[in-house]
Amino acid sequence: MVKTTKVYLKDEDMPRQWYNLAADIPGGLQPPLGPDGKPIGPDALAPVFPMNLIEQEVSTERWIDIPEEILQILSRWRSTPLHRAYALEERLGTPARIYYKNESVSPAGSHKPNTAIAQAWYNKQFGINRLTTETGAGQWGSALAYATSLLGMECKVFMVRISFDQKPFRKLMMQAWGATCIPSPSTETEAGRQILAAHPDTSGSLGIAISEAVEAAVSDPSGGTRYSLGSVLNHVMLHQTIIGLETKKQLALFGETKPDVVIGCVGGGSNFAGLAFPFVYDKINGSDIEIIGVEPTSCPTMTRAPYGYDHGDTARMTPLMAMHSLGHDFIPPPIHAGGLRYHGVAPLISQAILDDLVAPRAIHQTECYEAAVTFARTEGIIVAPETSHAVAAAIQEANKAREEGKEISIVFNLSGHGLMDLVGYEKYFNGELTDYALPEEEIARSIKTISNYPKPNIVTK
Amino acid sequence: MVKTTKVYLKDEDMPRQWYNLAADIPGGLQPPLGPDGKPIGPDALAPVFPMNLIEQEVSTERWIDIPEEILQILSRWRSTPLHRAYALEERLGTPARIYYKNESVSPAGSHKPNTAIAQAWYNKQFGINRLTTETGAGQWGSALAYATSLLGMECKVFMVRISFDQKPFRKLMMQAWGATCIPSPSTETEAGRQILAAHPDTSGSLGIAISEAVEAAVSDPSGGTRYSLGSVLNHVMLHQTIIGLETKKQLALFGETKPDVVIGCVGGGSNFAGLAFPFVYDKINGSDIEIIGVEPTSCPTMTRAPYGYDHGDTARMTPLMAMHSLGHDFIPPPIHAGGLRYHGVAPLISQAILDDLVAPRAIHQTECYEAAVTFARTEGIIVAPETSHAVAAAIQEANKAREEGKEISIVFNLSGHGLMDLVGYEKYFNGELTDYALPEEEIARSIKTISNYPKPNIVTK
């Protein structure tokens, strides 16, 4: 008899509500602040986001209904499979049972469409027909291009120039879905023109691209354009929780009552939150689960950055958010996991770390690629550079379980495939990868940047 | 209530046997011939393939058991989803119900692993630890690299030089799975060295790469190497029939008793055969089904090439096979659908055409890309250039159904995604695609090439 290696959910068992951690986070959430240092109300965000998404952003309802039309579109590829990694377990000789949630099966190749579809749909409901956004490695830009294509909306993506030049296929994906993708900084925005004047040869950054995308949205005189962000914000985390809610039901189909360890990689934090937050809820309610967020040592927001108020973008157009941040002016080293090169981390995740619900961990680039190659040659899936961080942590935990002789269950989020990002694998095989660890001066600089802003009203680390 | 857009099969409903059309093909199959023009026995193939696969190649058993260990590996991604294309139907305004079988969800991104896993497993059972093969666009080479990786075998891929240079990511995929990929013609084989001496600047061809891969297998003094082919041969078609066998059960889950039209693109023919042969069986047994094989106008083996005996490779190392062939020395125009640039077509498909069971159709490259973009912007999946031919024919049939007011059901094989092959899309958007139609002289040349070999003992077209 063939062993079950993966399970799906029946359509009737699909989650019908998203889980909102803001309802349960013990320390509560610090409000976003405006330029005057005072909490901003929903109206201040209205030029940037549609009001229905702003309501989700500030909601503290625990469960929020998923509109049927969104479920209908998600059903094109969801539920995603939950796999048991028998081959990897055997290779490692571990008594641990390893599971992975495979978000790479979406048409855009990652978890990003979960929120792209939802955001596009809410914008359309609100009468918006055009979205702007930024993208680094390209997973988010591709996902929003996919979503707007299905919903008949326009989409403009500002792509960090170095990625735009190095990854021409990402631009072509967006083009196939009818979106416009231009390199950032561009001459189309004031923010872009200023950067270009000061640094004509800049390779761009996510922070700059966010500034441009926000400006392009708010400056549309027709009022029919809004901005869409693929991570960090509460409503983005919310939309991604379908991942963890499916996973809970799928683990039960495998006969697991609960996982012992839950793992996701963290840039802004959306794929991690998507898998982890439903388990954070269980942990708040007494379940014994270790929840690990994994970041690159080169961009250690969770493990080394100070916690405080900072902007989400380089040009300081966004409100101040309370989070772990390396400073809005931080430019991360050029690791291949472009999606993890962000100076901040979602406020909800930051708070969960402060509340000891999430254990952060940083891993070097080389160990991540080594893990990714082991995974490719056992489980057969070539993962994205970002995802390789989750794989590496899962292998660390499985090895620890072997050393301790513990039959634990581990589940991690396979957030995306790496078929568009194979250059890092080549460098790994050629021995050309660099491991970066941020010098202490950089952390000191982060602390200085953040000290310019109000302090959150909680005890920080 | 959410509409069902895709269905899977439960593990216990998975097909347990492959279907062998050789048992039922009305006209029978012409035997392969050796250099002396006489039918060859299984022993003549023994240096090239393991005997267990040779037995499958010549079998006329209707149903052949799928070994449990192969099913176990296939279960990592199978069943693949069968989707209902509601969004495409709406865009076309057709009364037709359109379904597509999504083979792009395999880790290698196409249907090719179905036979790669089977071939690697049978070789390993036979004591072989190393496989050689050729690849054009790279789908097959990637699939065999994936399969050998999972089974702990070595793999060497000769990749047509023009693709090797234009698609560096394909080589990196194979490398991630531990295979060696070198450009063909190479200096590693006598066949390669001869071609290079005569044509130092050649961009290579599938026929040349096959010659090299066969030579590399048979010349291994250890005897531990065999050759693996990703299409054309009977046992390859056999392994792919799991596609159509799943599809039949999945159509029933959608409430369809039978499809009216079945469509697949045809290069060597494996993805087409995989979907179509189980329906050809129904057609032989009286079911009213139109079965359409789609090829590029630039490489019209089924629609215009003569039927006769020819070699499968340029250097004439393979036995003579009875098939539609443009001549083993034919070099197809450089269309983007590299997997459809083969001079011949599977003997089983050739015979099915002669028996009026399969209706061939040729479509221009531009129409195919236009169809692929329509598909991407409705169903959301960016298909491979090869697959775009099936999409184009499905749209032709759906439009015809609209004109005739017929509520028919159409199913096509989405054989692979196009994420590694986006350059053709860029050319399409830039208006730089070329439509090739083969001049009559080329057909005359094909007839001349084939006239050098014995004539099959049947009435040819």
State the gist of this model.
The first copy, chain A, contains 17 helices and 15 strands. Chain A has 461 residues and is of the alpha/beta class.
Write the layout of secondary structure elements.
2 copies of one chain form a homodimer.
Chain A: E1 6-7, E2 17-19, H1 51-58, E3 63-65, H2 68-74, E4 82-84, H3 86-92, E5 97-102, H4 113-125, E6 130-135, H5 139-151, E7 154-160, H6 161-166, H7 168-176, E8 180-184, H8 190-198, H9 206-218, E9 225-227, H10 234-240, H11 242-253, E10 261-265, H12 270-284, E11 290-296, E12 307-311, E13 320-324, H13 347-354, E14 359-363, H14 365-376, H15 387-404, E15 409-414, H16 423-429, H17 440-450
Parallel strand pairs in A: 5-15, 6-7, 6-9, 7-8, 10-11, 10-15, 11-14
Antiparallel strand pairs in A: 1-4, 2-3, 4-5, 12-13
Helix pairs in contact in A: 1-10, 2-4, 4-5, 4-10, 5-7, 8-9, 10-12, 11-12, 14-15
Describe the structure.
- Two copies of one chain form a homodimer.
- A seven-stranded mixed β-sheet of chain A has the order 1-4-5-15-10-11-14, sandwiched between helices. A four-stranded parallel β-sheet of chain A has the order 8-7-6-9, sandwiched between helices. In chain A, strands 2-3 form a two-stranded antiparallel sheet.
- In chain A, strand 12 and strand 13 form a beta hairpin.
- The mean pLDDT of chain A is 95.
- Chain A is of the alpha/beta class and 461 residues long.
- Chain A is globular, with a radius of gyration of 21 Å.
- In chain A, 38% of the residues lie in helices and 15% in strands.
- Chain A has a domain at 6-13 and 65-109 and 234-450: Rossmann fold.
